[in-house]
TrEMBL record:
It is an enzyme of class 1 (oxidoreductase). CDD domains: ALDH_AldH-CAJ73105 (cd07131). Homotetramer. The keyword Disulfide bond does not apply. The keyword Oxidoreductase applies. Keywords: Oxidoreductase. Residues 17-476 form the Aldehyde dehydrogenase domain. Belongs to the aldehyde dehydrogenase family. Its EC number is 1.2.1.3. This is Aldehyde dehydrogenase. It comes from Methanosarcina horonobensis HB-1 = JCM 15518. One of its GO terms (molecular function) is aldehyde dehydrogenase (NAD+) activity. The active site is at E249.
Length: 492
C-alpha cells in the first residue's frame, strides 16, 4: 500500500487545508512511491504562526546548546545514511554512491554548522570617546522561508536549514515536489534530535502556489531559494516589495578549460564526472568543454570512447553509471535542446536520444556536441541534463573570453600543468567557484558556495559565510563615563 504523507507543522503531522495530493514517482521505474498532501495558503499561515512561536523559544536558547541538537541530528543522519541513500536513489534517481555522498554532505554541513554554535563571533573596537566600549553582535533574522530543488534532496536543504538553525531562526520549508519524502525524513530527524515544535515546518506543493504564498507572506522576513533564474528574478522582485532579505542560488553554464599542456587522462576523468555525474542534473555540472585546438582530436576521441562505456540504468544496480533524469518534463526539455543544437549547426557526436527499449523510466543518453559556437543556445542556456557542448579555442585568453561569455557565473575549471596559466584563470574566470585540475563539481561544506552574475545575488552558502546569510549585525555602544558624550562633537 502506498503511504500518504501529511504536512509537518508545529511539530505535528497535519492534514492539508486543500484536500489535494500529488504522487511521488520513481523516475527509474515510474512506480508511485508515495502520495503527498498539497499545502495551501492557509497551511502556510499556520506554519508561519508555529514558526513565530518556535522562534521565541529557539532564539532564546544559547547557540552552543542549539548546537547540541544539530550534533544529535548529524549522528542520526549517520546512523540512517544507507536507508536515506536508497530512498534518494528511488525518489530522485541518482546512482547509489552519489546518493550516499548527498547524505554525507548533509552530515558534514550539520556537523559544521553545529560547530559554529561556539563561533558566533562579533567584533570589538575602540570608541572615539573616553570610557566608551563598542562591539557588534549577531542576531537571528526571525522566520525564514526556504524553497529547495530536487537534485540534492537532502544536501541542499541541509545547506540552508542548518546554518539558519544555529543562528537561531525558525523555518517554513517547501521542498521540491519531485523529492518530498526525503525532505520530510530530514525534518523528522531534526525533531527526533530535540528541535522544539514549530522551529521547522514543512509545506509541500507546487512552487506556483505554495512557493508564492511563502514568498509573499508578510510575516516571513527572509527567503532562501535555489532554482531557476526566471523564478529567482520573480522572487527578488516580490521580496523587494516587502523589504525581505533574499538569498538566491540560480542557474549555471559551467565551463571546463582543457589546455594543451593538461594531463589529458586526468582531464578526461574530470570532464566525464562533471558532465554526466548525476545525469548532468547539478547546478555545477560541466556543460561546456573549452578545448585547446592542439589536443582537440585526441581528447575528443578518448572522451567518446569513455562516454560510450558508461552504463545507463536504475541507480540501485551496482553496475549503473548514469541514472534517469528526474521527470518527463525534464526529459522533453533535454530533447528540445538537442533539436536546437542540430538546428543551430552543431555536430552531434554521441547520444541525443531517449534510451529505448527495456528501460521504463526517464532515461536519456549521454550526449556530446562539437562544432559549437559560443553564442549558440546550447552553449548559453542551462539544459540540466547529460549534454556536453565542445568549443575549440586557440589559447588561454580566448578560452577565458569564451568561458565568461554567459549570463551565469557559478562554477568553472581549468586543466593545466602551468602554474601561471592556472593563476591567471583563477583571477580572470567570472565565477563564484574555480577548480584547478579538478571538475566543476565537488564543493566542500567549509568553503563558501555561490555564484555571480545571473547565478546569484551575492550571498554564499556553506562555510562561515553561511551564518551571514541568516543573521543581522547589531552595533552596540556602552558608555560608562557617567556623563553625556556626543560623538563627532565632543572630540573636536
Amino acid at each position: 500500500m502506498v503511504q500518504e504523507y501529511k504536512l509537518l507543522i508545529g511539530g505535528e503531522s497535519r492534514d492539508s487545508s486543500t484536500g489535494k495530493t500529488f504522487d511521488d514517482i520513481n523516475p527509474a521505474t515510474l512506480e508511485n512511491l508515495a502520495t503527498v498532501q498539497v499545502a495551501g495558503a492557509e497551511d502556510v499561515d499556520r506554519a508561519v504562526e508555529a514558526a513565530e512561536k518556535g522562534f521565541r523559544v529557539w532564539s532564546d536558547i544559547p547557540a552552543p546548546r542549539r548546537a547540541d541538537v544539530l550534533f544529535r541530528a548529524a549522528r542520526i543522519l549517520q546512523e540512517r545514511k544507507e536507508e536515506l541513500a536508497v530512498l534518494m536513489t528511488e525518489e530522485m534517481g541518482k546512482v547509489l554512491p552519489e546518493a550516499r555522498g548527498d547524505v554525507q554532505e548533509a552530515i558534514d554541513i550539520t556537523t559544521y554548522a553545529a560547530g559554529e554554535g561556539r563561533r558566533m563571533f562579533g567584533e570589538t573596537t575602540t570608541s572615539e570617546l573616553k570610557d566608551k566600549f563598542c562591539m557588534t553582535v549577531l542576531r537571528p533574522i526571525g522566520v525564514v522561508g526556504m524553497i529547495t530543488p530536487w537534485n540534492f534532496p537532502i544536501a541542499i536543504p541541509s545547506w540552508k536549514i542548518m546554518p539558519a538553525l544555529i543562528a537561531g531562526n525558525a523555518i517554513v520549508f517547501k521542498p521540491a515536489s519531485d523529492t518530498p519524502m526525503l525532505a520530510i525524513k530530514l525534518v523528522e530527524i531534526l525533531m527526533e534530535a530535540g528541535l522544539p515544535p514549530g522551529v521547522v515546518s514543512i509545506v509541500p506543493g507546487p512552487g506556483g502556489s505554495v512557493g508564492k504564498s511563502i514568498v509573499q507572506h508578510p510575516r516571513i522576513r527572509a527567503i532562501s531559494f535555489t532554482g531557476s533564474l526566471d523564478t529567482g528574478k520573480w522572487i527578488m522582485e516580490e521580496c523587494a516589495k516587502t523589504m525581505k532579505r533574499v538569498s538566491l542560488e540560480l542557474g549555471g553554464k559551467n565551463p571546463v578549460i582543457v589546455m594543451d599542456d593538461a594531463d589529458l587522462e586526468l582531464a578526461l576523468e574530470g570532464v566525464l564526472w562533471g558532465a554526466f555525474g548525476t545525469t548532468g542534473q547539478r547546478c555545477t555540472a560541466t556543460s561546456r568543454l573549452i578545448l585547446h585546438e592542439k589536443v582537440k582530436d585526441e581528447f575528443i576521441a578518448r572522451l567518446l570512447a569513455k562516454t560510450k562505456s558508461l552504463r545507463i540504468g536504475n541507480g540501485l544496480l551496482p553496475e549503473t553509471d548514469v541514472g534517469p533524469v528526474i521527470n518527463k518534463s525534464q526529459l522533453e526539455k533535454i530533447e528540445k535542446y538537442v533539436r536546437i543544437g542540430k538546428e543551430e549547426g552543431a555536430t552531434l557526436l554521441l547520444g541525443g536520444s531517449r534510451v529505448d527499449p527495456g528501460l521504463p523510466g526517464y532515461f536519456f543518453e549521454p550526449t556530446i556536441f562539437t562544432d559549437v559556437m559560443p553564442e549558440m543556445k546550447i552553449a548559453q542556456e542551462e539544459i540540466f541534463g547529460p549534454v556536453l557542448s565542445i568549443i575549440t579555442v586557440s589559447g588561454l585568453d580566448e578560452a577565458i573570453e569564451v568561458a565568461n561569455n554567459t549570463k551565469y557565473g557559478l562554477s568553472s575549471a581549468i586543466y593545466t600543468e602551468n602554474v601561471g596559466t592556472a593563476f591567471r584563470a583563477v583571477e580572470k574566470l567570472e565565477a563564484g567557484v574555480t577548480y584547478v585540475n579538478a571538475p566543476t563539481i565537488g564543493a566542500e561544506v567549509h568553503l563558501p558556495f555561490g555564484g555571480i552574475k545571473g547565478t546569484g545575488n551575492g550571498f554564499r552558502e556553506a562555510g562561515t559565510e553561511a551564518i551571514k546569510e541568516f543573521t543581522e549585525v547589531k552595533a552596540v555602544y556602552i558608555d560608562y563615563s557617567g556623563r553625556l558624550q556626543r560623538a563627532q562633537i565632543d572630540t573636536v
